[in-house]
Model the fold of this input.
Amino acid sequence: MLKFIIPFHYLYFSRLKRKSEALSLIWIYPFYLFLFIFVFYGVQFYPNFITFLLILFSWMSVYEIGYMENDALTIRHETNPNIRIPQKDILYIQHNFYKISGIRYGILVIVVWLIFLFNLLTHLQIYIFLVAVGLGRTAFYFHNLIRSRLNILTYFVLCVVKYFVIPAIFLGRNYGFEPYLIVLLSFPIIRTIEHSVKGKYKLETFKKRLGSLDGFRVKYYGVLLILSLVLVLNYGFSQLLIYSIGYFFIYRVVIFVLLKLGKYSRDSV
Done:
């Protein structure tokens, strides 16, 4: 039962089959957002870091419900479902889905109550977080319900909400649209492009033009890095765009080289 209710555990159990995959996820999600908030934008570390962890913990508590919904409920309506977990776990989720979901929503309520009790966020910030949770859960519901190319759009919405929630809470509108544009260019767009070339969407022509995902990732961030330099040097855009794109560019170049050297398999990163 515990592996179905502890936030982040189900993600690791069902989708991260290697330690390298877990490290990759940490690098491109929580650690990136940590740098973005506390290093790039210089948000005060204490007590905001504690709140940052609580937000991530409670966000994943609800977000992972969508994963379980996909792995155990949606597959009943698919011809060739992607089986991610053992049959016994599928049956367990099917029989206990509402119980698991209730506990996970309970975790969210407890965390929000603690944040409110210790004044870790303003009422507006709590409201933003709850709205984001609602949007994320709704998007995941439709992502699991729809079985067509519209899933590319629902995936994009999921990715945007997932990456925007932390900046929306800690940065708000203090820096205008800039932080959100930086985040959007840094990950959600490219991740959605990668998702769109999955076999189930049958976009073969687009997939061929894209080529190797590893090479595409390097090219994407390389081109954006050049564009970022132009925007910063000639149009007064924030240097944080260079830092953010550079962060992912360096990571993808390193991974690309390691893959070419045979240090990792394609599916490990």
